[in-house]
Amino acid sequence: xxxxxxxxxxxxxxxxxxxxxxxxxxxxxxxxxxxxxxxxxxxxxxxxxxxxxxxxxxxxxxxxxxxxxxxxxxxxxxxxxxxxxxxxxxxxxxxxxxxxxxxxxxxxxxxxxxxxxxxxxxxxxxxxxxxxxxxxxxxxxxxxxxxxxxxxxxxxxxxxxxxxxxxxxxxxxxxxxxxxxxxxxxxxxxxxxxxxxxxxxxxxxxxxxxxxxxxxxxxxxxxxxxxxxxxxxxxxxxxxxxxxxxxxxxxxxxxxxxxxxxxxxxxxxxxxxxxxxxxxxxxxxxxxxxxxxxxxxxxxxxxxxxxxxxxxxxxxxxxxxxxxxxxxxxxxxxxxxxxxx
Length: 341
Ligand code: PEP
Ligand code: MN
What we know:
By secondary structure, this protein is an alpha/beta fold. The chain has helices spanning 11-23, 50-55, 108-120, 144-158, 191-198, 214-226, 254-261, 270-274, 280-289, 316-332; strands spanning 2-5, 26-32, 37-43, 60-64, 84-86, 89-91, 95-101, 125-127, 162-165, 180-183, 204-207, 232-236, 266-268, 294-298, 336-337. It has ten helices and 15 strands.
C-alpha cells in the first residue's frame, strides 16, 4: 500500500502521519521523489482503511493498495525513474548507453584491442565474460580469474567501466573492482545469488530468464532491491518461443511494459535474442524506437574465430557503423548519449 503525499507536505506532519500508520501495525519507508513523497507500507496492510487515512490526514493526496507482488521495484512506490551510475556513466531514462564487447574474454591483446576500438565508436561500457555459463561442459568455459584481470586492465586502459557475469556467490569476492555485475539469463532465479548481490551496492545488469514472464523478471529484481541495492538495470535478451530460426525471440513489448511497471532502467541485448549478426542492427534500432535506455551488443575482433557466440557477434567495423546510426537516433529521441558526469 502507498500513500502519496501532497507536494510540499511539511516534515512534522509527515512524521506524525508515519507514526499513526505504524501505530496501526505496519512498518513504513519513505520514497522521496522530485514532486511527491510516497509513504510505503509493509506488513499487514489488510486492516488499514485507505479512505479513512486519506480523509483524516490533510497532507495525503491519495492512497492505493499495490496489488502487484513486486513492491520496491514498482513505479507506484517510486514514481521517478531510477538512474544507475557505473563509474561516471549514467544509465536510465533520458540517457542512451551502448555496452559492447565479446561474449568471452579470450586473451589480453584481444580485449585491449576491442576496448580501444569500441571506445572510439562511442560505446560507454565494455562487456566480456570471464566465467561463462555454457550449455555443454566441454565448451570453452572462459578464462575465469585470469580473464577477469584482462578485462579490468582493458577497461582501465580504454577508460571504460566493465560489465561481466558472476555465476555464483562464491565468485563475488573476485568482483571487487568490477563496475557492473551481470546476472545471466540462466541465473535470473538463483535466489541466493540475487540476495547476495542485493547486499552490495554495485550496479547489476539483470538479464531476463529465457522462460521467464515479465512478472517473474520483476520479482527477481525485487530480490536485489529489497536487500538494499537499488542499482539494477533490467536487460531484455529474448525468450524461448516455438520459433527456431532465431536463437530466441526478442520481446520488444517488454521494454515499454517494464518501464511502465517499474522505475528501473531497461536495456536490450539483441545479440542473444537473435543469435545471428545480420539481425542485430535492425533489432538495435527497434530497441531505440521502443524507448530502451541502452543496448548490450556482442562484438568481436574476429567473429569467425570466436570461442563462443561468434555467429551473433558484430566485428569492430560493423559495430562502428551501427553505433553511429544508433547514437544519431537516440539523440533524435532526445536522449543524452555516452554522457559522462
Ligand atoms: C552473455 O551475455 O554472454 C550471456 C551468456 O547472456 P545470457 O545470460 O543472456 O544468455
Ligand atoms: Mn554470449
